[in-house]
Design brief:
The chain has 322 residues and is α/β, with parallel strands linked by helices. The chain is built from 13 helices and 11 strands. Helix 4 packs antiparallel against helix 5.
Length: 322
């Protein structure tokens, strides 16, 4: 249930800035774009600000002027009266764009991570939601905005990607009811599925091959770990954002309870992706390293060489999996 207070915060705004998180995925991007369309119908001037490269499987969501860079926005020399963050559990997930939170007196944090730090003036955080897309759907309904095909397409991407095509345990009956309504809004589900999961560029498949060649198994098959050094991304001429989903290959091995993927973003900056099965909670481990996320899907950053990060993470699970 969306409170009247949240509805009042969103209504009547002249200029709104929406901030997806860095290294964008389907949830943060789909949710941001759906909210943008909804607020445009209310007469607001809405800018989605993102500097990261869009993953190839999400490019089909981008339309003319739907996303703007920080540099382009600042050149307009306008002041937003509301800044909204989407799917970011803490300010660190905004990267350098965290400075946008100081451009307006009113800031709204919309998220579904239980590790959220409630860093905005207003915070709409629902850890029970499958995705931010589910929350944006509820906002659209609460504000009596007509659900258009474009909104529905973005929301379906959000729900599908954050639930692993509706197979993760965050998929509730409510999630499927929302998905059904989005389909009834006229989306081309076949096209969306094809773009998201069945249209990988060749160099992304090569990246997967290289990542799998680094696979190690520890603790009697209960932990898998893969690593992608920066030179592997460079060799394949592909950005780090294209590695989404690779960690799941390690998780899906029989007997594995926890899977780790290490991505070298820059020298001594390693992005750690954590996935788990059943009741194993990896969010607490991610949080201990300054990160966060969900029980079965979390992440953090370790500032060390990639081999050093590997040793740290393997040792972190020594007492938990041995």
């Amino acid at each position: 249930m969306i409170s009247e207070n949240i509805i009042n915060i969103l209504r009547g705004r002249k200029r709104v800035v929406i901030l997806p998180h860095i290294l964008p995925d389907g949830d943060t991007l789909g949710s941001s774009l759906a909210l943008r369309i909804a607020l445009l119908t209310l007469g607001s001037d809405v800018k989605v600000i993102l500097d990261d490269k869009i993953p190839s499987n999400l490019n089909f969501l981008i339309t003319h002027n739907s996303i703007m860079s920080t540099e382009a926005f600042l050149s307009l020399n306008v002041k937003p009266d509301l800044v909204i963050t989407i799917d970011s559990s803490d300010m660190g997930r905004l990267g350098k764009r965290s400075k946008f939170l100081y451009l307006s007196e009113d800031t709204l944090n919309i998220d579904h991570h239980r590790t959220n730090t409630y860093y905005c003036k207003y915070n709409l955080v629902d850890p029970e939601a499958s995705s931010c897309g589910e929350i944006i759907y509820e906002i659209i309904r609460a504000m009596n905005i007509k659900l258009t095909k474009d909104m529905a397409e973005n929301l379906y991407v959000s729900l599908s990607t954050d639930t692993g095509s509706f197979k993760y345990n965050n998929t509730k009956a409510k999630t499927l009811r929302i998905a059904a309504e989005l389909i009834e809004a006229g989306i081309d589900k076949t096209r969306i599925v094809t773009e998201l999961y069945q249209n990988n560029p060749y160099n992304k498949v090569r990246l997967l091959s290289d990542a799998l060649s680094s696979l190690e198994i520890h603790y009697d098959g209960r932990l898998s770990i893969m690593s992608i050094p920066l030179h592997i991304f460079e060799k394949n001429k592909i950005s780090t954002s294209e590695s989404d989903g690779i960690v799941e290959y390690g998780r899906d091995i029989e007997g594995v309870e926890v899977a780790i993927l290490l991505k070298e973003l820059s020298p001594n900056e390693i992005k750690v992706g954590l996935r788990s099965k059943c009741d194993f909670d990896v969010s607490s481990i991610a949080k201990s390293f300054g990160g966060g996320g969900h029980k079965n899907a979390s992440g953090c950053t370790i500032f060390d060489a990639i081999e050093g990060a590997k040793k740290i993470m393997i040792n972190e699970f020594k007492d938990k999996l041995k």
